[in-house]
Specification:
Layout: H1 12-22, H2 24-41, H3 43-48, H4 50-70, H5 84-109, H6 113-124, H7 130-137, H8 142-170, H9 181-225, H10 228-247, H11 249-253, H12 256-283, H13 293-304, H14 309-319, H15 325-351, H16 353-359, H17 363-370, E1 407-412, H18 419-429, E2 433-443, H19 455-477, E3 483-491, H20 493-501, E4 508-512, H21 520-523, H22 526-534, E5 539-542
Helix pairs in contact: 1-10, 2-10, 2-15, 4-9, 4-10, 4-14, 5-6, 5-8, 5-12, 5-13, 6-8, 6-14, 6-15, 7-8, 7-13, 7-19, 8-9, 8-13, 9-14, 10-15, 12-13, 12-15, 14-15, 20-22
């Protein structure tokens, strides 16, 4: 029996995840307040059990990190360089603008040099997968956001230790701290080791674990349990924040000015960054031809400004442990406090979505996308192993079907470059076509890439696809007197195409031999080969010239 994807119902796991995401700032604030009160009144117990508390913090680090790695879509890296302007903007925001603001605001508002180091680490660590959900809620390009998140993470593995080392040498060394060159080298080495331990190793374990889980349970079941992973990450972050403030409540009371400094820094960073870049990117357009300036701007802002504070907490708490628990606490304080402020700014930004759309002049474009009928999702989950080889497909003969009158043909499309040309060429070879049904399949993997992909995000992707489909229908209608219709589904492309072929409504399938962009994985070899080998009706594959 076929497994159907139901986008209209939210599971309990999704409701819990969305609740925690929505009220994360509140829960972080409560963890800080309760931790401070409990730690202040039971400081003696906290001091006598500091080893236990450190073990709890270390365990919480892995509870935060590993589920996050399970949801990271490394395959999206293949799409990262389609828009070099967007890539450049995101890299500069994450690894130049953020660290620069940390230095400027740290020097302006913070007294303790280790707190300044913590602020630097908090803003040099790039965005998390939460950003993909934010982009979707702003009705922007989720697939581009996915690529930017994956690219930023990979670059961070090298850039975080490099930039942190420069900061330690040039800033901390000038503070006349009692740090020998050997101690500074130890901090730098510990930072590299920490990145290996809490980022690279979990990632190396998470990739095969994810693939094994998908093979064993299928993509649909994996998608259904995937909300558990961000939930664990958020719970782990709340736990470590509580533990940090409980263990060092007495120290924090004596550094209240640094707490206020973090607050001031967060207010300036959030308000200035979101305002300035929203205005700037209206005029410095990041979009490619035929793409929305609004969408590209939102992708850049929401994958370049928000930070992955969970990772920053782990780095600061573990990497500075050689200097003692109090120093590690001071460095981990900024990333522990910042989530409460970051969530507030993001929520306000999302609430201003309609005004921002109007500011960019994208109202007509967005309304056109939204003026669509609801398409029932019939995505069928494939539990079969994908063909990994790229097969060079030659043009296939449609056999006796070519001579049949009144052909009804199925045309799977991926909106890649040259789609109109190969469809025109294929129809030119068939002078007896009556009706054309265009089929676009949003691969299921694009629906599971994010920690926080919601029903609205998936529907937004379908609406964008339908907007493109309507434009394609208009173009094809100029090729001849054809009856042109279309369908959009979410799921495994090969299985859905074959399902349509088996429905008995079509005489043949016409496909382009090569896809581009995010669909390349599915339309080179794996999908085409499956359709050719299993289709009950003839398949004609048109070689694309672009």
């Amino acid at each position: 029996m076929n497994n159907l994807i139901n986008l209209s119902q939210r599971t309990k796991l999704e409701k819990i995840r969305d609740h925690l995401d929505k009220f994360l700032g509140l829960y972080v604030g409560l963890a800080i307040i309760i931790g401070l009160i409990a730690g202040y009144y039971d400081a003696a117990w906290a001091h006598s059990h500091i080893a236990l508390l450190q073990n709890i913090m270390l365990a919480s680090v892995y509870v935060m990190i590993f589920p996050m790695m399970l949801m990271l879509n490394i395959k999206a890296l293949g799409n990262a360089f389609r828009n070099w302007k967007l890539v450049t903007a995101v890299i500069l925001l994450n690894f130049a603008y953020g660290p620069l603001m940390a230095v400027l605001l740290g020097n302006l508002f913070l007294i303790n040099p280790y707190v300044r180091l913590g602020l630097f680490l908090a803003w040099v660590v790039p965005c998390s997968s939460m950003s993909i959900g934010y982009v979707g809620l702003m009705k922007a390009d989720v697939s581009a956001a996915t690529a930017m998140v994956a690219l930023s993470f990979i670059l961070s593995l090298a850039l975080i230790p490099t930039e942190a080392s420069l900061y330690i040498h040039n800033i901390l060394a000038s503070e006349r701290l009692a740090l020998s060159s050997a101690m500074i080298s130890k901090i730098e080495m510990n930072l590299v080791i920490t990145i290996i331990e809490i980022l690279i190793v979990p990632l190396a374990l998470a990739i095969p674990t994810r693939e094994a889980m998908i093979r064993k349970m299928g993509q649909e079941k994996f998608r259904r349990i995937s909300p558990l992973f961000p939930t664990l990450t958020m719970l782990g972050m709340i736990t470590i924040i509580f533990t940090i403030f409980f263990a060092h409540a007495d120290v924090l009371i004596t550094h209240i000015m640094d707490v206020l400094g973090v607050f001031y820094s967060a207010m300036v960073f959030g308000s200035v960054s979101l305002t300035v870049f929203t205005i700037l990117f209206k005029y410095i357009k990041l979009n490619r031809r035929n793409e929305s300036p609004y969408s590209s701007s939102m992708v850049a802002i929401l994958t370049g400004i928000p930070k992955n504070e969970a990772t920053a907490i782990a780095l600061s708490a573990v990497a500075l442990a050689p200097l003692g628990p109090q120093v590690a606490f001071m460095a981990s304080m900024p990333p522990s406090l910042l989530p409460a402020f970051q969530v507030v700014f993001i929520i306000v930004f999302l609430k201003l979505r309609e005004k921002i759309i109007d500011y960019y002049g994208a109202r007509k474009e967005i309304e056109e996308i939204l003026k669509v009928r609801e398409i029932p999702a019939r995505g069928v989950v494939s539990e079969e192993k994908e063909v990994s080889e790229v097969v060079e497909v030659q043009e296939l003969s449609a056999g006796g079907v070519v001579s049949k009158t009144g052909l009804n043909i199925l045309v799977p499309v991926d909106f890649s470059r040259g789609t109109e040309e190969w469809i025109r060429e294929g129809l030119g070879r068939l002078n007896n076509v009556n009706s054309i049904t265009l089929l676009h399949v949003i691969p299921l993997s694009l629906s599971e890439v994010s920690d926080f992909v919601t029903e609205d995000v998936i529907k937004s992707g379908k609406k964008i696809a339908e907007h493109k489909m309507r434009e394609l229908v208009k173009t094809i209608s100029t090729f001849g007197p054809y009856e042109v219709s279309y369908e959009i589904a979410v799921g495994d492309p090969a299985r859905i195409i074959l399902e349509q072929a088996n429905a008995g409504k079509f005489d043949m399938i016409m496909m382009g031999h090569r896809g581009y962009g995010y669909a390349e994985t599915f339309f080179v070899g794996s999908v085409t080969l499956k359709v050719i080998s299993r289709s009950p009706i003839p398949v004609m594959v048109i070689r694309k010239n672009t």
